[in-house]
Amino acid sequence: MSLLTAAPEGAPVLGDAEFRAALYALEPRYWDGHPFHTRLHAGLLGKDELRLWAANRWYYQRCIPQKDAAILANCPLPEVRRQWLPRIVYHDGADAGAGGAEKWLRLAEAVGLSRAEVLSEEHVLPGVRFAVDAYVTFARQRPWLESVASGLTELFSPGLLRHRLGRMREHYPWISEEGLAYFTARIDVVDAEGAATLDLVVRHATTRADQEACVAALSFKCDVLQAVLDTVDHRATSLRARP
Ligand SMILES: O=C(O)c1cc(C(=O)O)c2c(n1)C(=O)C(=O)c1cc(C(=O)O)[nH]c1-2
């Protein structure tokens, strides 16, 4: 069932299973099947394209903790903040050089970028910046529950992460294992994180309007991710066309 069009007034609250199904109904919109991912996983990307991807994904990675901090700032419930806080530590690390962001920088270095050029964001494309900024702005402006729901793309990501890791090891063997640590570490946590987030959303979306807003938020996030890869793909095409 699609919850993307508003139900008539007085429509009943969905049961747990129906609401979960309405969220999962968005899975076909996830970015796993994006043509850029398809080429990445088939080993068809050149080094320039891999560098473009890593430098642009960096902008997403580095904004995620700010998005999560906005959720914390908007949430009045200590038990929810307690559950959400570790996400910031996961990405930023308990110490400098220990978190997910650092692992992404190592991946960028492993594909041949310097840390300085990644941090300078000189390769970040305008469309990627707009899309990722829209995600952070959403979290700043919308109720915390919707922002949490927008992160549920993570529910769809475990298969993609495992597939990507396998295909990258196979097709780009020159990328060091240390460079792939972002994915190995992420795979270890993402199932539990996604399930806990889904339970949180289901528990707190107690009205039909909440449920519809959560589905709309997840749909918006699918658009953010598509826009990121559309932009990278477009630039990659012009790199390939270069003599
Ligand atoms: O590699 C991927 O395809 C992928 C996808 C997603 C996602 O679906 O948003 C995230 C991540 N990775 C990821 O590494 C990550 O830390 C992450 C955080 C979030 C979020 O919205 O809070 N999504 C994702």
TrEMBL record:
Pathway: Cofactor biosynthesis; thiamine diphosphate biosynthesis; Cofactor biosynthesis; pyrroloquinoline quinone biosynthesis. Gene3D superfamilies: Heme oxygenase-like. This is Pyrroloquinoline-quinone synthase. Residues 29-230 form the Thiaminase-2/PQQC domain. The keyword Oxidoreductase applies. SUPFAM superfamilies: Heme oxygenase-like (SSF48613). The gene is pqqC. GO terms for biological process: pyrroloquinoline quinone biosynthetic process. It catalyses: 6-(2-amino-2-carboxyethyl)-7,8-dioxo-1,2,3,4,7,8-hexahydroquinoline-2,4-dicarboxylate + 3 O2 = pyrroloquinoline quinone + 2 H2O2 + 2 H2O + H(+). Keywords: Oxidoreductase, PQQ biosynthesis. NCBIfam families: PQQ_syn_pqqC (TIGR02111). Belongs to the PqqC family. PANTHER family: 4-AMINOBENZOATE SYNTHASE, PQQC-LIKE PROTEIN. One of its GO terms (molecular function) is pyrroloquinoline-quinone synthase activity. InterPro entries: Haem_Oase-like_multi-hlx, PqqC, PqqC-like, Thiaminase-2/PQQC. Ring cyclization and eight-electron oxidation of 3a-(2-amino-2-carboxyethyl)-4,5-dioxo-4,5,6,7,8,9-hexahydroquinoline-7,9-dicarboxylic-acid to PQQ. Pfam families: TENA_THI-4.
